Fold these 3 entries.
Entry 1:
Amino acid sequence: IGDTGRGKTTFLSTFPKLRCFDFDGGLTSVRGRDFEYITYEDEEQGTTLKRPTAFDRFWSDWQEALKDEELESLGIDSLSSLSECLMNTILTNNNLYGKKPNWDHYEIFGSRMIRLLNTIKHAEKNIIVTAHPAMIKNDVSGALFVGPSIKGRKSLDPLKQTFDEVYIANVEVVKGERVYSLQTVGNEYTCAKSRLAGSAGLLDIKEVP
């Protein structure tokens, strides 16, 4: 999870035999590296949206990739933008593109998202998913923390159960050089978590490549 320029896509591109499903159109920084990618975008025409195809095309390609024995890793860049395309599809199917989603639309969105998360959870491949950050309110304490920006607040609960490793991508300037790092252990301000960090000792709490 991280803002643009924090190294999320570069990290994703390091996984072996990778196919990346790109919704952000931001692979310029890693082009030339040895991995496959497919870019998806819903095309707008004026103030209206042509029949959205991005999510449906992705879903078909995703199902095929899960069965492809030549691939070891699948990446989604980013879940935030994918969720926008999914909601575009739902609203357009109801002739409501450009309108505010209602409860029924979020219910459909949630069920489609859970289907995707279930394929991620049970995949026999490395699955790497990036997301833009958002400030989210804890339902119990009321405190704000950094989590993934996606449509549908209730989608966060199945997200937590799907991923074993959740990192916060950071960058800072040290002596004029940009230093990238991953926060691997969460605190009251972030949702980071890791089975590989902490007591396992395989990753630092602040992992620097």
Note: The chain is about 30% helix and 25% strand.
Entry 2:
Amino acid sequence: EKKVNLIIKNISIVELKVSDIIVNNSNFKVNTKVFTLQSNQEQIIEVSFKPQVIGNIEGSLLIKSNAQNDILISLFGNSVSAGIFVNKSSIDFGDVTIKTQKTETFLISNISEKDVDLIISEVTSTNETFKEFFEAFIIKKENALQVQVTFVPTIITQQTGKLLIYHNDIEQEVIEIDLKGRGVIASNIQLSTNYINFGSSEVYEVS
């Protein structure tokens, strides 16, 4: 999001009443729409550009007031976006002994054609059995980051969930990675004895 200050000044000797500021494109916004200015007073209007699509974007800003004429201002902006690529769409942890854990990794890459940072704002799991170790991070163009997710089963059952990756690539929705794994009991073995004694035995020679 980019912001530009627009200064409106009353250069008359009478009171200026701004009754509305109309923006005709939702990619542009203003923070103030109604105010009154005495002679020589100024008002700073913050005009912001937060594009929702890629490319050149045009709009207009119409200032309605008790001045002789309404004022129309043209708005222009160009939007670019980071490009996200995740190298896995699913992770299968297989069988994991309960009360232990298994960790898998995946890569998040910034494949933007422009020099735009990829911002990963949040990574969450829909199933608390799958643990993500997340802090918000930024990936520069043509760079990648390895991310870990850990399966920590506590009961004997099949577990499923999704890892949700929130980002600033406006051409893609939230990225989802399917997760699954099964909690199992560790195998046990029992021996009839832990000691074998053959005693004395003749050497057996094969000719």
Note: DSSP finds no helices and 16 strands in the chain.
Entry 3:
Amino acid sequence: GPIVPPMSSEADGLYRKGVQAQQAGKPAEAERWHRAGLELRHQLGDAPGEAKAAHILALLLHGLGRTGEAAELYRRALPLYRGSEQALGLADAAYQLADILSDKGDLAGADEMFRRSLAAQEGLFGHDDLMVQTLFGLARAAQKAGKLDTAQEHLARCLAIEERREAVENRVEILLRLSQVARDRGRRDEAEEFLRACRELGSESGE
């Protein structure tokens, strides 16, 4: 296997300290450890390690509402994720960045990143949650941009995954969104059908 440079174990230690501080509810301390780890991975020229370190710091800042800084770190991580073994990291970083861009109203940027996430997810198994979130994000961005046919296609794919998984709560949300899209397209009967399916699901789950 590859020879691990001794400093990389130091970077692992910094990562562990960062995670421990997060778990203890000390975000400022966690940020310091994760920044130190990121800097060390960069110095080592460890691209996969740097990608993960930028990603974890981005998730921390994203959760604290510091979306501008988080977006920069996701952007830093993306080109460093390489190869099929890092596809999930790439898919998640692109999804998270798309989510920030979508909230800021950058629909073209969001669409590009959601698609990049989707492409990275091809061939990944057992990550239906991320797939559904990505497709739903694409549908939301398409709806806002007035691309209603595209929005409906993405939502139909979401619904198919959630029907297979029997995820009732998510299906209700998707059916509501499908109803909105149908109404926006001037298809009232279709909109009513989606709402009816929604109500039936609600009553089935005993709500």
Note: The radius of gyration is 20 Å.
